[in-house]
Amino acid sequence: MGKNLIQQKRGKGSPRYRAPSFNYKGKASFSRYDDGKAISGAITDIVHSSGHSAPLMELKYTNGEIGLLQAPEGVKVGDQIEVGTDVEVKTGNILPLKSMPEGTSIYNIESNPGDGGKFVRSSGAFAKIITKTSEGIVVQLPSNKRRIFLPECKAAVGIVAGSGRTEKPFLKAGSKFYAMKAKNKLWPNVSGTSMNSVSHPFGGSSSHAKGIPTQSARNSPPGRKVGKIAPKRTGRHKR
Which residue, 166, 187, 218, sits at the end of a domain? Predict the structure, then answer.
């Protein structure tokens, strides 16, 4: 009997798994304006977007551009944010990594110069500049892993606001359901052995423990390639 797994349903592109991006306030990224001169922007509002875990600050730049960016801790409406190579290293300002001293807390780091920021964007997150080498700027990410970035990649100074978000319990399953629904995430996550036989290769038999091996061959077809993929060994590791 055919089994359509969740990841296969997602890949189909049906509305059930499509992100409701029309409810999002917009894309949070740096200004694309870059001619080597420093510009500044005023924080006109701090907004909530269901597509972002952190509060967003609305910036109105001196060149007339309006953009969104993750708000750092300690800023308020009316504050000025500066963007440039030689601007002051203070909370909210945006500089290239080469212009920041070692030990600076940063967020929204560009993967490539000009892409608007890809790393360290969730609430309460921050990275630290460890050292500067001939290969690039070594940055310690929130996962404690270290990555080398190009010196021209920009980043914002500070810590992303909303750090206490994960500490507040949901208390009810319904609250978690609606929080996940805002981003169109499938919840709750159910194990394959607890599903019906039509929903997963491990389902059926009126029980969640069926003794079906979780290893599958490297060349197994889609739908059966679940569990441990071509494991070298299985079972309990005896010391």
Answer: 166
Within a 10 A sphere around the Cβ of 154, how many other Cβ atoms? Answer: 26
Query: Please, what is the Cα angle at 83 between 79 and 70, to 5 degrees?
Result: 60
- Domain check: are 60 and 27 in the same one? yes
Helix (H) or strand (E) segment spanning residue 12: helix 6-12
Same domain, 48 and 82: yes
Task: Give the containing element (helix H, strand E) for 80.
Answer: strand 80-83
In a domain, 1, yes or no: no
Question: Do both 68 and 137 map to the same domain?
Answer: yes
Q: Domain span at residue 221?
A: 167-229
Q: What is the pTM assigned to this prediction? A: 0.79
Rg of the chain over Cα atoms, rounded to whole angstroms, equals: 23
**What pLDDT digit, counting tens, does each position of 197-221 carry?**
888 878 888 777 777 777 889 998 8
Other residues' Cβ atoms within 10 Å of the Cβ of residue 95: 23
